[in-house]
């Protein structure tokens, strides 16, 4: 019987468990034994590997996080660490591998592919920062978690006529900020792909207040600003009280949405199919509601199609152009 290894790496994302479940069940149907690698690439190097059966993955699809745990592994970044990982895979008789994670996890999978391991990757990251796929596992759940928080913040903002700056995750991708702002009626949006300076943000807030709207939401992607400096700047220029809310890791947890469970299940089955068909070095994705696979080397070479995102931003920002730059 062939053996298939599966690991989750990098930041956890809701839906990873559904993908694990799908891989185990699909492998079992093809008479392939699944070995769960706990703790990502570090767990692989440390031989933290146990058998997974369909019984082991019952009742996990609705759970957030990952039953296989996850980590970031400095040792795997070095050539000797990767060679050790290959030796461990061979020691356990694992000839096929599925890696679920984000950009760093994909790079690790590509390294293993070049070392002769048959590997397929599945995108699992709330950031949705892969250009080759419309959605990554976890994005939809995180988006709805943000929307729930925004809804609550809007209630109290309205009651007190307050402006709030909300910082969401996303790293270098503005999808979470953009779509949470559009769905949550955020007035001012600043993302890495289209970053607003302090003066522009302040001008837009001033314009909204002048029009009679006292409660306003400013939604920004993490790591772009010092949020307290932005708060202080607006308060000093406009003489208003501003609140800040950094949503943090609440965005990663929670039961995955139906969309993420279904997407993860489809991708898990697809990964097993690709491996049993003799493919390796591919990433599974979804485009125009159809499952696709693409070579690792092309994952980051495809330019992100930001047209739709910017078109939406431009449409809604017509209400938020602001006054002349405040002096």
Automatic annotation (TrEMBL):
Positions bound to Mg(2+): 103
Domain of life: Bacteria
Active site positions, chain numbering: 127
InterPro entries (UniProt xref): ATP_PFK, ATP_PFK_prok-type, PFKA_ATP_prok, Phosphofructokinase_dom, PKF_sf
Residues that bind ADP: 154, 213-215
Compartments reported by the entry: Cytoplasm
Broad enzyme group: transferase
Reactions accelerated catalytically: beta-D-fructose 6-phosphate + ATP = beta-D-fructose 1,6-bisphosphate + ADP + H(+)
Annotated signal sequence range: none
Domain Phosphofructokinase, first and last residues per copy: 3-275
Pathway(s) this gene product operates in, as recorded in its UniProt entry: Carbohydrate degradation; glycolysis; D-glyceraldehyde 3-phosphate and glycerone phosphate from D-glucose: step 3/4
Subunit comment: Homotetramer.
Task of the protein: Catalyzes the phosphorylation of D-fructose 6-phosphate to fructose 1,6-bisphosphate by ATP, the first committing step of glycolysis.
Family: Belongs to the phosphofructokinase type A (PFKA) family. ATP-dependent PFK group I subfamily. Prokaryotic clade 'B1' sub-subfamily.
Name assigned to this protein: ATP-dependent 6-phosphofructokinase
Provenance organism: Priestia endophytica DSM 13796
